[in-house]
Write a structure and sequence with these properties.
Elements lengths: L10 E4 L5 H11 L9 H10 L4 E6 L2 E10 L4 E8 L30 E3 L2
Parallel strand pairs: 4-5
Antiparallel strand pairs: 1-2, 2-3, 3-4
């Protein structure tokens, strides 16, 4: 799927159990470094253990990107950023924004410190 000629808004939503296959497929296609938890059981455990941590960018029904956000009560972390090759460089970094400059955890608490992780 080629990148659209003009940028458009992507739907940002929490992943569900029904999305596990699409998430794993995106991780494979995007070239992210594989880990031992890149399987249905691993992603399902994440969804059960940390509801709301796995976010998806969806473009007209197609998973265009994912990110895992963590919060330990003190600082936020970002893991497993993956963008479909067809959606890279659409508008520069952060093209799919939620409109809220402060990332929020599952409890809705604004994060004051964000730490990126490979």
């Amino acid at each position: 799927m080629p990148a659209p000629a003009t940028p458009r808004a992507l739907e940002i939503r929490e992943a569900t159990e029904a999305d596990v296959g699409a998430v794993l497929d995106l991780w494979r296609r995007s070239g992210t470094h594989p880990t031992v938890t890149d399987d249905e059981a691993g992603v399902s455990l994440l969804l059960a253990d940390a509801p709301g941590a796995l976010l998806m960018a969806v473009d007209d029904g197609v998973v265009a990107g994912t990110v895992i956000a963590g919060w330990n009560g003190w600082r936020g972390s970002i893991y497993r950023i993956a963008v479909a090759p067809s959606h890279r460089r659409m508008c520069g970094p952060g093209a799919a924004r939620t409109g809220d400059p402060a990332p929020r955890g599952a409890r809705g608490t604004p994060h004051r410190r964000i730490r990126g992780a490979g």
